[in-house]
Structures are given as C-alpha cells and as structure tokens.
Amino acid sequence: MTPRQFESRYEPAWVELERGLQALDAGKRAGKKPRKPKTGQFPTDANPAPGAARVAQLYRQCCEHLALARERGYPPYMVDRLEVLAARAHQRIYRRHDFGLAALRDLVLYDAPGAVRALRWHLLVVVLVFVLPIVVVGIATWLDPHFVLTVVDAKQVRDFDGMYGPDAGERLGRTSGDDWQMFGFYIMHNVGIAFQCFAAGLMLGIGSLVMIAYNGLLFGAIAGFLVTRGDSERFFSFVVTHSAFELTAIVLSGAAGLKLGHAVLAPGRLTRTQALMRAARDTSPVVFCFFVMLIIAAALEAFWSSAGWIAPGVKYAVGGCCWALVFAYLGLQGRSHDARSARSGDAR
Questions:
Q1: 198 to each of 57, 131, 201, 281, 287, how far by Cα in Å?
Q2: Sign (positive or negative) of CA dihedral 214, 216, 222, 224
Q3: pTM for this structure?
Q4: Helices and strands, counts by H and E, the chain
Q5: Rounded to the nearest 5 degrees, what angle is found at the Cα of 152, between the Cα atoms of 146 and 153?
Q6: Are 206 and 264 in contact (CB under 8 A)?
Q7: pLDDT (tens digit, 0 to 9) for every residue of the chain, 348 residues total?
Q8: DSSP per-residue letters across 138-190
Q9: Would you tell me how many other CB atoms lie within 10 Å of the CB of residue 152?
Q10: Given CA atoms 316, 318, 324, 327 in this order, what sign does their dihedral have?
Q11: CA-CA-CA-CA torsion sign (113, 117, 119, 122)
C-alpha cells in the first residue's frame, strides 16, 4: 500500500478522531457535556462528533496506524500528524479519574520493558563495551596488583582498601546513622552518572560508549585489586545485590544514549532533528526504567549491602534473586502484550 493509498483509506477515521477530541475538549472547558454548535459551526447534525467510547476505539486504531506508518517509512508529515493525534487522544483519555495510575501501570508493565527490548542491538553493543574492560582489566590487576594505579590513583586505592578491608567493621566503614546520608549520596552520584551516559549519546553515540567503557575499567580495576588483597568475599557480597539494579541501569542509560547518537548519525528519511525527537520519545520509557532502578539500588546499597552483620551467603542468595528478577522483568514482562499489538498491526 502506497502512502497516498494509506492516507486516503484511513484519513476519515483520523478526522473523526480529531472531531471527537475537539468536542470532548469543548465539554471540558465548559465543565459539562459539549453544547450543541451553532449553525455553520463544526460539528454539524449531519456529521455529529463521536462519543467517548468511539474516541477510545479511534485512538487504538490511530496507534496501530502510527506503528504501521513508522514501520513502512511513510512520509514524515504523516507520521508527525499521527503522533500528535495519538498524543492528544492519550492525554484526553487518561487525564483523570485514575490520577494517571492507569498510564503509570502501562508504563511499568508494558512500555518500559518493551522499550528496553526494542534496544536489543544497542544493548548488545553497550554490554560488550562494559563487560570486556571489566574482564581484561580485572585479570590484568589480578596478575599484577600495581596495574590498578593505571586506572585510579593511590588515594582511591587506599580508600577502597579501607572500605572493604578487614577493619571496615559491621557497616563497611560507617555507622548505621550514616545510612540515610549515604542513600541520598548514592542517588545523586549514580543518577548523575546514568544521565551523563545518556546525554553523552548526542556525541554520535561515542560519548556514551566512552563513559560506559570507563566505568567498566574502574569496576574491573577495583575488583581485581580487592581479589588480590583477599577481600573478594566482602566486596562481592557487598555489590551482588544492588548491582543487579545499578549496573543494569548504567547499561540501559548507555544503550538509550547510543540510540540518540544513532538517530543523529543515521536519520534515514527524516531530518536529524526529527530523528532525534523520535529517538528521545522512544527511549523515554527506558529513562524512567533506569531512574527507578537507581533509586532501588541506592536503597539497597545504603541499608542492605553495607550491613556487615548479614552473612555473605544470605547476600548472595538475595542478590541472585534480584538478578533473576531484573532479567525476567526486562526480558519477559509484557511480551504477550507486545505480541497482541503486533498481530493487531498486521491485521490492519
């Protein structure tokens, strides 16, 4: 189907949706049902505005048309029109009564994990860029402990040795009264790193990859050094739980940033501005996802991971459950919803 045939076939439904949204907005401004229009005004009695139920149905059809237009590479003006129309309808339908809880539910259950899976190739690149430096530098530091000084300075080495060494104490270098302070610090620090990785993607994606690689180098150097010092159990039992959320969030931020850089580097039939705006919209659920994960990671790191009185075996067990939960959520959650949406789009 050519773009002209597609538009000719479905434009009546788009116009009807626009008419319904205008009528609903008029009723909202008046604080009551839409009043009957004057003679010559739109809509007319011969062509009445659709009701709320019909608007909801037309909204679902509009979303399907938007997905098809994007997939088939239809002209930007058509895609933009459908995006604006779908956004207006979404805001109108979910504006009240549930105080946004329905939209938040859809975001958590369907949109966020689906958006992450849509970045699978970007994720693959970022995971390789992150994991390879961890392995290489970790092994190099394990073979030669002095290699750690090529990544961090001597003061940082002493700080990490004091945090995870045998003299760290039950709270790994701090008292329980510092937990709330550290909770705030972890949020500011980790969220800052994640958003830097994301925003650095505007540099053709190279910025995100550089930041991800540096974080991999740092983690590998610290891990390798602490293993050589005999502090591996204390270190890995500390990071195993919150790292399920923290490291995953950092990787997600890098993949989202790489998506932005890809849009700037290869916009396709769109202008670079249009491609960047579309990439930003597509990755917005991913941003929500990694932000929430960092909040969870900060809470775990402050109140759970730092508790030296908890046996390492317990932390490993809880950490394994957290890693399984993260992988299950990102890999499986909402797949049936994605399949239904795909079948609906194919049917159209």
A1: 36, 18, 6, 13, 8
A2: negative
A3: 0.70
A4: 14, 0
A5: 85
A6: no
A7: 888 898 889 999 999 888 888 887 776 554 444 444 444 444 444 456 677 778 888 888 898 899 888 888 888 888 898 998 988 888 877 665 445 677 788 888 888 999 999 999 999 999 999 999 999 999 999 999 889 888 888 888 888 877 776 665 555 545 445 778 888 888 999 999 999 999 999 998 999 999 999 999 999 999 998 888 888 888 899 999 999 999 999 999 999 999 999 999 998 888 889 899 999 999 999 999 999 999 999 999 988 988 878 888 999 999 999 999 999 999 998 877 665 555 544 444
A8: HHHHHH-GGGGGGTS-HHHHHHHHHHHSTTSTTTTSS-GGGHHHHHHHHHHHH
A9: 16
A10: negative
A11: positive
C-alpha to C-alpha distance for 95 and 59, rounded to whole angstroms = 14
Measured CA to CA in angstroms, residue 284 lies from 111, 149, 256 at distances of: 10, 38, 9
| Count of other CB atoms within 10 angstroms of residue 35 | 10
Count of all residues that appear for the chain in the document: 348
Distance CA 207, CA 197 (A): 7
Q: Hey, which residues does 269 pair with through a beta bridge?
A: none
- CA separation for the pair 126, 247 (Å, rounded): 12
